[in-house]
Amino acid sequence: MNRCPSRLARLAEFILEFESMQNEKPSDAFEVSIDSCAKLRLPLSRLAGNDGYQSLLSRSLQIAQIEEPKLNQLYVDNDGILVFLKGKSHVAMGELHGCGRVLITQLFGLMVTFIGESLTFNTLQSIWPAELILKSDDKVQVLRA
């Protein structure tokens, strides 16, 4: 099983928490994860092209499916959008609670692998407030409001 460093898992958790608090309408945790992946689309497409973003998200999903088999209900379409398999859309998003953190963590891990830690954190800071993500030598600190 491919486990990302716990600091990336914490970062994913804090970003998802931040996104949940920013949302005006109550959203399911997994829906927030889908929205967070979508926010990464533009900056990652600039770096790797649309196909690169789609490949990165697809691979992240494949790795996350090992840890969270419930994610097998999803795939990444040719446009880089997470969608449910036919006949699976009736599954309650609530059943995927917690799975989004695993997916985002894997995505961050692949970003670090392919574009490096520095560019990964610069990319994240271009999406989320710089105050939210502070990189120090060994750890990621997240400021809470």
Number of separate structural domains: 1
Low-pLDDT regions: none
Q: Termini distance?
A: 35 Å
Biggest β-sheet strands, sense, barrel:
2 strands, antiparallel
- Could you estimate the helical fraction of the residues in percent? 55-70%
Mean pLDDT: 82
Total count of strands: 4
Question: Can you write the helix and strand succession as a string?
Answer: HHEEHHEE
Major sheet strand order: 1-2
Radius of gyration: 14 Å
Strand content: 5-15%
Q: What is the general shape?
A: globular
The number of distinct helices, counting runs of at least 4 residues, comes to: 4
Write down the oligomeric state: single chain
Q: Give the structural class.
A: mainly alpha
Explain what the structure shows.
- This protein has one domain.
- The longest helix has 39 residues, at 29-67.
- It has a two-stranded antiparallel sheet with strand order 1-2. It has a two-stranded antiparallel ribbon with strand order 3-4.
- Helix 1 (6-22) packs antiparallel against helix 2.
- The chain has helices at 6-22, 29-67, 99-115, 117-127; strands at residues 74-76, 82-84, 134-135, 140-141.
- It has 145 residues and is mainly alpha-helical.
- The protein contains 4 helices and 4 strands.
- 58% of the residues lie in helices and 7% in strands.
